[in-house]
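Structure tokens please, single chain.
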Amino acid sequence: MLFPKKTKFRKAFKGRIKGVATVGTDISFGSFGLKALEPARITERQIEAARKTISRCMKRAGRIWIRIFPDVPVSKKPAEVRMGSGKGSPEYWICRVKPGRILFELDGIPEDVANMAFEYAMAKLPIKTKIVKRVA
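Here you go.
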């Protein structure tokens, strides 16, 4: 699973995802990309599930780039614990994704295989996405 080796603070605020992405909106490495169309918090498990699906569909040919990284800890209190006594301990990691952000990139495979791989990956992600091609 993806998570940072070290962070400055152990716990983070929930925060809000406002506006559209300004960085990571263009295809930089591959020929095809999967672009987010709505704001969301994507967990490390969802990223890994999508990556495995894409990799399996490509039959390990070509190259895949993951353009997002889960670096925000989400804390949770145990079940049946009374109110008060502070914030819970970190349970899992998320990535805050704004609309317009490229999530994955592919290269070295035909377009129909890339489209099929991204279609399967879309089913694993909690947001609406679209497939984009690099403009030459």
